[in-house]
Specification:
This protein has about 325 residues and is α+β, with helices and mostly antiparallel strands. It folds into two domains: about 5-165, no CATH class; about 175-315, Jelly Rolls. It is about 20% helix and about 30% strand. It contains six helices and 18 strands. The chain has a seven-stranded antiparallel sheet with strand order 6-5-4-3-2-1-7. Strands 9, 10, 11, 13, 15, 16 and 18 form a seven-stranded antiparallel sheet that branches. A four-stranded mixed sheet has the order 8-12-17-14, with no helix packed on it. About 35% of the residues are buried.
């Protein structure tokens, strides 16, 4: 395939970005603000996507980041969408891939996550530079065993809990759902930083994210409360199943920093905070169930970001205002 059409130029940009980044020695990660970021390109998916976007912009092709949230094995992942012939297509420089439909047309992120990917692995294409041929790229099916050791596969895009294109037109709330049953207890994560907590949360929940049952996913992003600049403000929904109507329940929530959360019902009614916990990072709330399943909104009491490290829902006997 030679340079010419906008699709060819976009795929050439993908091949060049992937080659730039994959050929660098791993001598330490750099940020995109580092003056050597483009030449060194030793970084994760975000930096590789940034390199691709710069190449696409140089080729006068409109592009934007696309973020995947709550993805198995990865936590979150970043790729790129490029506008080709008036339509957005998904390009992933980290893994040097894009997707085609049955007619060979490249697919957008929205199209990809709708696919029955596990039965459609043949729709994914690998892009590389053709050896010895200037300005020529090679598009081919994935080599056998391509995903081995990468902690990734073609179905990861569809298994992500949510995705969002990120540009000036796509900034706002992204509120994912945290679903628990009565009696579920997520043990306290022994971590002091956001990165450490994120890795432990992913380890605790990865088996649920990897299976095909979407109802049991425990959102990685739902545990990030408050401002997640510059992409969204998080007020995740908490769904509690297996309730007994008329029974009083206690919600216990522990966060990484000292903070009190506000918990609202969908009609914006605050539920009762029990003020008897000496641990300033622990908040306790009670409510009387009115249905088998109840929905709540978790909202931080301040503007700073905070993260859940433990949450449990247990039946409570006696006075709902007591400890």
């Amino acid at each position: 395939m030679r340079l010419g059409s906008s699709l060819n130029r976009a795929l050439t940009a993908l091949a060049i970005a992937s080659q730039i980044c994959s050929s660098k020695s791993s001598d330490g990660f750099v940020s995109r603000t580092d003056s050597s970021a483009f030449s060194r390109c030793v970084g994760a998916c975000g930096l590789q996507s940034w390199v691709l976007i710069n190449i696409l912009q140089a080729l006068k092709i409109e592009s934007r980041f696309v973020n995947f949230y709550g993805m198995p094995d990865q936590g979150n992942h970043t790729a790129v969408e490029a506008k080709v012939d008036g339509a957005w297509i998904l390009l992933d420089p980290t893994f040097e891939v894009f997707f085609n439909d049955d007619q060979g047309n490249p697919l957008s992120t929205a199209d990809v996550v709708k696919l029955d990917i596990m039965a459609r692995a043949e729709s994914i294409r690998h892009v590389g530079i053709e050896s010895g041929a200037e300005n020529t790229i090679r598009v081919s099916p994935l080599p056998l065993g391509y995903w081995e050791g990468k902690f990734f596969s073609e179905n990861h895009y569809a298994l992500a809990e949510a995705f969002r294109p990120v540009d000036k037109e796509n900034v706002g709330p992204l509120n994912l759902t945290l679903t628990l049953n009565v009696g579920d207890v997520f043990p306290r994560l022994s971590c002091e930083t956001e990165v450490a907590c994120e890795l432990l949360w992913l380890k605790e929940t990865n088996s649920r994210l990897n299976d095909l049952d979407r109802s049991n996913d425990i959102s990685l992003l739902a545990r990030k409360l408050g401002l997640y600049s510059p992409y969204f403000i998080g007020e995740p929904k908490l769904v509690i199943n297996s309730l007994n109507p008329g029974q009083t329940y206690l919600i216990q929530i522990e966060t990484i920093m000292e903070s009190v959360l506000k918990i609202f019902t969908p009609n914006q009614t605050l539920i009762h905070l029990v003020n008897c916990q000496s641990n300033s990072k622990m908040s306790m709330y009670t409510f009387v169930a009115t249905a088998l399943t109840e929905d709540f909104i978790l909202s931080p009491a301040s503007n700073r970001s905070n993260s859940l490290t433990r949450i449990s829902i247990v039946p409570q006997d006696g006075d709902p205002n007591s400890c």
